[in-house]
Amino acid sequence: MTTRPASGGVQAVERVFELLEVITAAGGDMSLSELSAAVKLPLPTIHRLLRTLVPSGYVRQLPNRNYSLGPRLIPLGEAAGRQFGSSARAKLDELVDELGESANIAVLDGQEVVYIAQAQSSRSMRMFTEVGRRAGTHDTGVGKAILATLPDDRVRAIVTGAGMPTPTAKSLGTVEELFADLARIRERGYAVDDEEQELGVRCYAMAVPGAPTPTAISVSGPVSRVDEDFGRRAVPALRRATEAIAAELMPPPVARRA
User: What's the whole-model pTM score?
Assistant: First the structure.
């Protein structure tokens, strides 16, 4: 068990990041009283920290007096995402070498997923997803894998806010259909996009356990190659990759103070 410093600037920094993480986990918008209940800090302490963050743009106060993440965090998140995508690229390359199909990594950003890295198959007929592309959560393998790690109320908020368009006849078009699929994903540990975003394309995806930002990796290709036999090989490969990425994301242990 680690202990936090009893006082001083380091503790203030830890509290600031704790506030930002709690606001992020709540969907980016919380009241002062909700923050106080979540972080177990006195209201005056939270208010003092927020007053420091608001002028610098790291936190915004909304018209309803709630607090949300500020615009100064956007370039930091984008830079961190690019760096994370670069470090995870080696795992995607290994998936391509082993399975022969394109591999992607994506993170949840608001009500959508954004692809942050890809390794392409060398096959002439292959799947290509542009890095930086945004997509829905309900009709992509990575999106459904991520949703399966979230509480039902947050899932409902995401998909009702974003809507549930149906790009193909196989796309999930209702919240009830989505929750039924998420139950299967949680039971077996991986998601399948079975021609739900694009006809002729199948995708296997798995969430990265414990990622600070909900993250998933996938392998995808034509349904003629990405079949059940492919899935039997892909699932353990995805599990090894997600576990390796999760280990890289694990924060270093905090030194115990005397």
Answer: 0.71
**CATH number of the structural domain 9-69:** 1.10.10.10
The structure tokens listed for 51 are 């007053």
For 150-159, the CB contacts below 8 A with 24+ separation are 150/214, 152/179, 154/27, 155/179, 155/182, 157/27, 158/111, 159/111
| Amino acid 184: pLDDT | 97
User: What's phi and psi for 50, nearest 5 deg?
Assistant: -65, -35
DSSP letter string, 76-91: HHHHHHHHHHHHHHHH
Structural fold of domain 74-249: Beta-Lactamase (3.30.450)
pLDDT, one tens digit per residue, over 102-129 is 999 999 988 999 998 889 887 766 666 7
Taking the alpha carbons of 100, 84, 4, 256 in that order, is the dihedral positive or negative? positive
Q: Rg of the Cα trace of the chain?
A: 20
Helix/strand/coil for 106: strand
